[in-house]
């Protein structure tokens, strides 16, 4: 099979393609490639990809990556000619991303970042495909709030603590990907995604920005877990997608921090959301729950230098786009 496209377009597999990040990635990739979206809707949504079903360069397969799959035998992929062309690129995004979801699906989170990831790596070997693994700053462990961290930082992680479900899953995943690269000379890349937000997030996602927006839209108190002066950074989804594509096309194997280096106080985020939603909500501050990770900042020097990438979306515009999207979901999901 070919490790380069022998027909008009590359074949790209997006594992977790109906999720928040995966669906935006499919939107971008399908402009120039043939995209296979693999998802089992554990936390992804059919509505995120419905508009792509009529595109002849897009195909969805409802499948759990924890079970191996033979793509060349799937009749719906006949036009992708996988038996001749294979797969050129694999993006592995299949994991619950918010504390709410990975707590609800604890074993599934561990398995998809081990067994599921191994199945994807086996496909990369079979097809001589490049693979990106979407990891997380959770691998850094305990860091002081507001600290800016580089990729070589190694922190303390409690493997039996409340956040271990996710942090240990991602740590193992990175180790597995790195050893496939070393043992089989596989072209793999690892990225660590910090605090991404935007349309296609679920209203019940549980992370800070959608939770605050949901409360503001319903004129309920905005409950901020932390103090008003605490600092965080927030990466808009379109900037992340450009970084992922750039990483796949680049030579840096990583890990690479993908984040915004603009920092905001928690109070600034809450105030902006109230202003943009014209809400009557009041902001309250509470101690962080044990499942919630500290808000530390990323050093993105490596991403700037190796990818020529820098996030460009202003916070106000990103929040407005997210509010517009979640407002529509509110009409569907929230009782009046």
Automatic annotation (TrEMBL):
NAD-dependent epimerase/dehydratase domain: residues covered: 12-250
Pfam families registered for this protein in UniProt: Epimerase
Signal peptide extent: none
Obligatory cofactor(s): NAD(+)
Keyword flag NAD: yes
GO biological process, one term: D-xylose metabolic process
GO CC annotations on file: cytoplasm
Record keywords, A-Z: Decarboxylase, Lyase, NAD
GO molecular function: NAD+ binding; UDP-glucuronate decarboxylase activity
Matching InterPro entries: Epimerase_deHydtase, NAD(P)-bd_dom_sf, UXS-like
Protein name: NAD-dependent dehydratase
Organism annotation: Candidatus Buchananbacteria bacterium CG10_big_fil_rev_8_21_14_0_10_33_19
Lineage: Bacteria, Candidatus Buchananiibacteriota
